[in-house]
Amino acid sequence: EAHGIHFLDAPVSGGKEGAEKATMVMMIGGDRAVLDQIMPALNAISRKVVHMGPVGSGQATKAVNQIMCAGINQAVTEALAFGQHQGLDMDKVVDVVSSGAAGNWFVEHRGRNMTRGIFEPGFRLALHHKDLKICQAMLAAEQVQLPMVEMTLVQYERLMAQGYGDEDISALYRAKRPLFGEDA
Question: Which is catalytic among the residues 48, 62, 130, 133?
Answer without folding.
Answer: 62
